[in-house]
Amino acid sequence: MFTLAGVHRFEQDIKRSRFRAVAGPVQDAEEARQFFMAHGDAGAGHNCWAFRAGSVYRFNDDGEPGGSAGKPILQAIDGQGLDHVAVLVSRWFGGVLLGTGGLVRAYGGTAATCLREAERVEIVPTTTVRIVCAFAEAGRIRARLDTIAGARVDDEEFMPGGVRIVVIMPVTVSDAFIRMVTDITRGHAVIDQAEG
């Protein structure tokens, strides 16, 4: 599964109407809403959109005939195997009616071309590992953490009896990391893991 590396734009004219797509990565519905507000154009006749963020998705035709704009945009996202992506397609009417089928092709095609041209990045499932350990063990854990690809310390808190370290890492390396921490601390560390 892939998402976009950043915001990408594509514009084309179809039968004298101008269609402009703006696509970008989003984490959730609220971020998608903000994306649409930031990239919508009040001067356009229609600002149609769709997003997918995991199992959550929405689409909007913004006054175009039902199912002729938002749904084809969502199908462009899904058809390219993308997730955590929002696409807004704005239309400026050029005087020629496209019909429902023409609108479906125009909105879906504009979105699909924009997404095809955009730089993609693979979505790597991550997990959060929380470790509570003695001060002396924390340094050894941090030194070994540098050898694990994709792992990073998200938070660290010093407490009276030791250190709490929160690490985010790819799911694929979490079991090995937990075994390593257990070995370093001789089983004394408290370890908690949560998907996310």
Write up this protein:
- The chain has 196 residues and is α+β, with helices and mostly antiparallel strands.
- It has two domains: 2-122, Ribosomal Protein S5, domain 2 (2-Layer Sandwich), CATH 3.30.230; 126-195, Alpha-Beta Plaits (2-Layer Sandwich).
- Helices cover 33% and strands 38% of the residues.
- The chain has helices at residues 29-39, 70-79, 99-117, 135-145, 171-184; strands at residues 2-4, 8-14, 17-25, 46-53, 56-60, 85-92, 120-122, 126-133, 152-159, 162-170, 190-195.
- A five-stranded antiparallel sheet has the order 2-3-6-4-5, sandwiched between helices. A four-stranded antiparallel sheet has the order 9-10-8-11.
- Strand 2 (8-14) and strand 3 (17-25) form a beta hairpin.
- Helix 2 (70-79) runs parallel beside helix 3 and helix 4 (135-145) packs antiparallel against helix 5 (171-184).
- The chain is elongated, with a radius of gyration of 23 Å.
- 35% of the residues are buried.
- The model has no long low-confidence stretch (mean pLDDT 95).
- This is Putative IMPACT (Imprinted ancient) family translation regulator.
- Pfam families: DUF1949, Impact_N.
- Residues 15-115 form the Impact N-terminal domain.
- Residues 131-187 form the UPF0029 domain.
> Span from first to last CA?
16 Å
Give the ordered list of helices and strands: EEEHEEHEHEEHEEHE
Instruction: Predict the CATH topology of the largest domain.
Output: Ribosomal Protein S5, domain 2
Pairing-aware structural class of the strands and helices?
alpha+beta
Q: Please state how the strands of the largest beta sheet are arranged side by side.
A: 2-3-6-4-5
Please compute the radius of gyration using only Cα atoms: 23 Å
Number of helices: 5
Based on CA inertia axes, which overall geometry fits? elongated
CATH class of the largest domain: Alpha Beta
Low-confidence stretches: none
Give the mean pLDDT.
95
Give helix % range.
Answer: 25-40%
Q: Classify the beta-strand content into a percent band.
A: 35-45%
Tally of extended strands? 11
